[in-house]
UniProtKB/TrEMBL annotation:
GO terms for cellular component: membrane. This is DUF1295 domain-containing protein. The keyword Acyltransferase does not apply. The chain crosses the membrane at residues 28-45, 52-73, 93-112, 124-144, 198-216. It comes from Candidatus Weimeria bifida. PANTHER family: 3-OXO-5-ALPHA-STEROID 4-DEHYDROGENASE, 3-OXO-5-ALPHA-STEROID 4-DEHYDROGENASE (DUF1295). Keywords: Membrane, Transmembrane, Transmembrane helix. InterPro entries: UstE-like.
Length: 263
């Protein structure tokens, strides 16, 4: 319990930037929290690390730094903020209490998401098939997400007012979210051999299910925004009706009517 309280405190500290701009709780703060948790785990278990557990922590650090770095670059060096003006909710009307709720619940989610790595370190595990497979899946997810972000940024620089349908976006409309889901699928799988009781299974499943829910909520939010911006474009309508929104080759083309997904 002490270890999880320390990790929770790290997640709270890293994501506290959201009090300046509340969307940062789940963007810049998200990446910073995951990276700091990875660093924290390396220090907490410094005398008990193995090669595979070091790799697990390093992946969290790389993932978090990449995400926060990309979001910072996008906000500062591209026309993203100008394009999104009026479409992204501001802090106006968001009470301090609401911010506290978002901050605490988001930090808890980050702790649960990374719990498979924590359980691996607590169990003093050695190399097994699950951790190797999980690490490989996470690397694939990170690579896919990074590639999608780079492709989207390049496309928006060339045609800021057009939707992106090249590269990975030919296969799925949200390849960056798909890559994120793959990354956390790998994290979950990597710990399968060390979930020793119902509490550990619940923590790992809750963290995994939570980020999957968030990704589909993000896809719904993006679809609503794109419908508003490109709904009258016949090319977009054709693209939307023929390209899955979230998972390649799975014929799910829209989630905007699923109101249980937070938009």
């Amino acid at each position: 319990m002490k270890i999880f309280l320390i990790i929770f405190a790290l997640a709270l500290f890293a994501s506290s930037c959201g009090f300046r701009k509340y969307v940062w709780f789940i963007s810049l703060g998200y990446g910073a929290a995951i990276a700091l948790i990875g660093v924290g785990l390396l220090f907490i278990f410094s005398s008990e690390l193995t090669l595979v557990t070091v790799l697990q922590c390093v992946l969290l650090i790389v993932y978090g730094c990449r995400l926060s770095g990309y979001l910072t670059y996008r906000d500062l060096k591209t026309a993203y903020n100008k394009r999104m003006k009026g479409e992204v909710k501001t802090d106006d009307g968001v009470s301090f209490g609401a911010k506290m709720g978002i901050w605490i619940s988001a930090a808890l989610l980050y702790v649960l998401q990374t719990s498979p790595v924590t359980f691996s370190l607590m169990s003093h595990r050695t190399t097994d098939a699950f951790i190797i497979i999980g690490l490989l899946i996470s690397v694939c997810g990170l690579t896919l997400e990074t590639t999608a972000d780079l492709q989207k940024n390049k496309a928006k620089q060339k045609a800021p007012g057009r939707f992106v349908d090249n590269g990975l976006f030919r296969l799925v409309r949200c390849p960056n979210y798909f890559g994120e889901m793959i990354f956390w699928t790998g994290v979950f799988i990597s710990g399968i051999n060390v979930y020793h009781n119902a509490v550990e299974w619940i923590c790992a499943i809750a963290g995994f299910a939570g980020i999957i829910y968030v990704m589909f909520g993000g896809a719904r939010r993006l679809e609503i925004r794109q419908n508003k911006n490109y709904g009258d474009d016949p090319e977009y309508q054709k693209y939307k009706s023929s390209t899955p929104i979230m998972i390649p080759f799975i014929p799910l083309y829209s989630v905007k009517d699923h109101k249980w997904l937070v938009a």
